[in-house]
Design a protein that fits this description.
With 521 residues, the protein is of the alpha+beta class. The protein has 13 helices and 14 strands. β11 and β12 form a beta hairpin.
């Protein structure tokens, strides 16, 4: 009962930890998505500030001609379409009046929903977002509320609206807009006196078109093609075209991409957390069962040593752990062969590779823990060496290693399968030790009633203080080693009654020597 309560507590804690990871990933995903939206809003503010500076640079005495502003807006939108820096996400732009209606615009204005013109908060749609920003220097700006900016229409836009009798009132069949009179009060077609003309142009900005300088007391300027209007008509026009704010429609493609990439990442983290929790639960269950088995084994037999009992228990745990690993591997292979995304298939293949590595380590441990039963028979040593070299030929070719065999053709008494495994582990150890274009040499010769086998390499060698330690379990000098390969070799050698030792190879490298082999006639 105590063990069952403890198991229930462990499973509950694992579930709580997994739920905490899920909640944490949801919160992190929301934070990343909000940061992406904030970044997009900051870029829209930067574009709005740039356009405000352009408006302030182009205005004169509170007026701004649409002909001068329209190319600027078109260039900004076209720059975004062409992927130029600064405006890559800009889809459309519109300057609005105090009623929220567009005065001048560029790009696809259908991307700007109607409610966005009256909303101060961003309006998000599936593919775009609309921001409403103030234009500093316009009527929406606190520092310029008493001196608004008016965007006056161009002559081309107003040409169809000029009444015919306006020409007759000017005393001509055609209005001369290229050289308009400077004063309406001077009469039809009359030019003002030179002194008056000089006074009217006093204080005008250099380069101001004739007819735009006007009186010096400020206020919106009236261009020549609007002088046919009376004062009320002109005031109504300026009221409709008084600049109030700026509406930007920007693409949300980058925000969606960031959100989707982060969502995949969070999903994978949650998946790994779930797998880890399941594996931990299964491991705990196996540990619980193994613990019970260990207690029964200790009580049942006093003849077995404590080390042997621990080896059996660990071997059982390793064997049971392979089952969930095989399940994980099978599920990962199914995902990699499904219609999933390339990224998910790649990650599932990585899961398969990692489970294969863990399974190989478990197999080595189980192999180390298994008792050695030697079945001696006449075995050709040179034939076993050839088979081992052929089995590791891919690893040898990959590092361009030169392998040479000087094994004399004689027979020895040995278990062929165990001998093959020992030589396999020794050759694999040498392959891992040497660098590219390294050398490995097999030698074997008879000396009376005994024989000796050696494998030499030109790797970094083994320090003298480690030449005994390397045969102990879990001692390794290789980054990817498990520490059981040479331990298994020693087990096989001792089971045959042989001896193995590690020596230095002049000028560099290591020598693994197996002595006391028994040749046969």
């Amino acid at each position: 009962m105590e063990l069952q309560r403890r198991s229930a507590l462990i499973y509950g804690l694992l579930l709580v930890v997994w739920l905490l990871v899920v909640g944490w990933q949801i919160e992190e995903h929301a934070r990343v998505e909000a940061a992406a939206k904030t970044d997009l809003q900051n870029r829209s503010t930067g574009i709005a500030n740039t356009l405000s500076a352009v408006v302030r640079a182009l205005r004169f005495r509170g007026t701004l001609l649409q002909d001068r502003l329209q190319p600027v807006l078109d260039d900004m939108v076209n720059s975004g379409t062409n992927g130029l820096p600064g405006f890559t996400e800009l889809l459309s732009v519109a300057l609005i009046n105090t009623d929220g209606k567009p005065i001048v615009s560029a790009g696809d204005t259908n991307l700007i929903p109607g409610e966005a013109l009256s909303e101060s908060e961003p309006v998000w749609t599936a593919d775009s977002v609309t921001f409403v920003n103030p234009v500093w220097g316009a009527s929406a700006s606190p520092e310029n509320s008493s001196n608004p900016i008016v965007v006056l229409p161009s002559f081309r836009e107003m040409s169809n609206s000029i009444p015919r009798d306006a020409f007759e009132r000017r005393g001509s069949n055609e209005m001369n807009f290229s050289n308009p009179p400077s004063s309406v009060a001077g009469g039809a077609g009359a030019s003002p006196p030179p002194g008056q003309q000089s006074r009217d142009r006093e204080g005008a900005v250099p380069g101001t078109p004739p007819g735009m300088e006007g009186p010096r007391n400020g206020g919106p300027r009236r261009p020549p093609w609007l002088r046919w209007m009376d004062e009320n008509q002109f005031k109504a026009l300026t009221a409709r075209r008084e600049l109030h704010g700026l509406v930007l429609a920007m693409s949300t493609e980058n925000v969606r991409a960031v959100s989707m990439d982060d969502l995949w990442l969070r999903g994978i983290i949650v998946l790994f957390a779930g797998i880890s929790a399941i594996v931990a639960g299964l491991a705990w269950r196996n540990v619980s069962k193994t613990s019970e088995l260990q207690i029964r084994l200790v009580r049942a037999s006093e003849l077995n040593s404590h080390l042997k009992e621990m080896n059996l228990a660990a071997a059982g745990l390793a064997h049971e752990t392979r089952n969930p690993l095989n399940i994980i591997r099978g599920m990962a292979q199914m995902i990699s062969k499904s219609d999933a995304t390339a990224d998910l298939r790649e990650k599932s293949k990585a899961i398969v590779d990692e489970t294969d590595k863990v399974t190989a380590q478990l197999n080595e441990f189980i192999n180390y823990s298994r008792p050695r039963e030697v079945r001696r028979a006449k075995t050709a040593l040179n034939a076993v060496v050839t088979e081992v070299v052929r089995a590791l030929n891919y690893d040898i070719d990959e590092k361009k290693i030169r392998v040479e065999s000087k094994v004399e053709p004689f027979l020895i008494e040995a278990d062929e399968q165990l001998l093959r495994q020992a030589l396999f582990n020794l050759l694999l150890n040498s392959i891992q030790a040497v660098g590219e274009n390294g050398q490995i040499l097999f030698t074997a010769h008879r000396n009376g009633s005994e024989a000796m086998f050696e494998i030499r390499d030109d790797g970094p060698g083994v320090p003298p203080e480690q030449r005994r330690e390397i045969f102990k379990p879990y001692f390794t000098t290789h980054q990817k080693g498990t520490g059981l390969g040479l331990a298994v070799v020693q087990q096989i050698v001792l089971a045959h009654g042989w001896e193995i030792e590690c020596l230095a190879n002049d000028p560099k490298g290591a020598v693994f020597r197996i002595s006391h082999l028994k040749p046969t006639a």
